[in-house]
Amino acid sequence: MAMNRSTLQSLNPKNPTSSLLVLHFIRNFSLWSMKKDSDLESSLSRNRRWIVNNQIKNIILRCPNQVASVRFLQKKFKSLDLQGKALNWLKKYPCCFDVYLDNDEYYFKLTKRMMSLVEEEESIKDLQESVLMERLAKLLMMSCNHRLNVMKFNELKRNFGFPDDYLIRILPKYPEMFRIVNYSGKRSTMDIELVSWNPSLAVSVLENVAKEQQVEPGFTCSLPSNWEKSWDRFNEFNRIPYISPYVGGRDFVEGSKEMEKWTVGLLHELLSLTLWKKASILKLGHFRREFNLPEKLNVFLLRHPGIFYVSNKYQIYTVVLREGYNGSELIHKDPLVVVKEKFGELMQEGLHEYNRRRHALNLEKKKKKGMIMMRSGKKEQRSIAEASEEDDQLGKQRNLYNPEERKRFYEILFDGDAP
């Protein structure tokens, strides 16, 4: 991130106060200085359209008869971080959304192929209830008071694969594991609390891998071999004995090596439990008290580039677990990820169809324009007698070779589609 030149010029290095300002700017602008990984950036950009269309899908499913007006979606566009016309966006994905006109108003619904994927996703969620139960238990066991605020957790529930109705779909089936507590009676203070500790679940991903390989648990570094300084720092850090994220971090001294080791292990485990091995840094920061995370989480993550990758794709700061990816592809895919990728493939198919149609229409327009120019050329080859009779008419046509006149002509003829 580059500093504004005028800002730099306004700072005088000879002035002590100005020097402090320079240091302040340098520190702030270096917070996000991480060398870009083209593969991981590619995986994030590939997910962007899927995320938006998945949100639109959820909007439709919550509507009566699973039909919504395009006007209603247009009102939601800002919250989806989109610009332009909703109708244009929907038409880009004809395999996903069925758009139709009724009483002079556009409506849309999911196509049959999309509905079949929705049904497949729902059946997987039913089959994965026990997996989600264990995932929720692990999150609660890592939290300081073994409790998580419902409203906060809802911000990250989809990262972990939880359905919107998890409170009534999953929790009531496991009363021996969870309960809802709300001492104040306010909606904002509703918490999910762990009822009983399960030792078999208090084992991290790294510990399970180490057990299988019969080695001591440790982190892996996913950096090029020529990053010598980063490798040296990583090896020094990795020599500190691994500390499980399930032991709790309150007993460690703030700023100590043990505290740092525990925090890295906690973040590693949190990201390992997500579907896509990534999460918004801003949303993770909302759980600073619950998971005893560093106040400057962004700075902390950048100290460990071999384990975490920090991106600012689409002006959204995201942390990715490097070892979860091979190039731009996710290594271990949750069944929910597999069905969501089918959704992505359907989107791409629809987008390809839309682009093909648009290309055909553009070719047709160009052909029509060519025919008009040919006709004007034939008129110029008419006989002298015909030319004398239509002298004024031809005079106007010759004016088309004037750029301004030509532009105005096409604006009238093709509704502004001037060449």
Automatic annotation (TrEMBL):
Q: What's the protein called, per UniProt? A: WHAT'S THIS FACTOR 1-like protein
Region Disordered, as annotated, extends over: 377-402
Residues forming the PORR domain are 35-351
Give the taxonomic lineage as stored in the record.
Eukaryota, Viridiplantae, Streptophyta, Embryophyta, Tracheophyta
Q: Which GO terms describe its molecular function?
A: RNA binding
- One Pfam family, please name it: PORR
Please indicate which superkingdom the organism of origin belongs to. Answer: Eukaryota
Instruction: Check the record and name the InterPro entries matching this protein.
Output: PORR_domain, PORR_fam
Q: Which residue ranges run through the membrane?
A: none
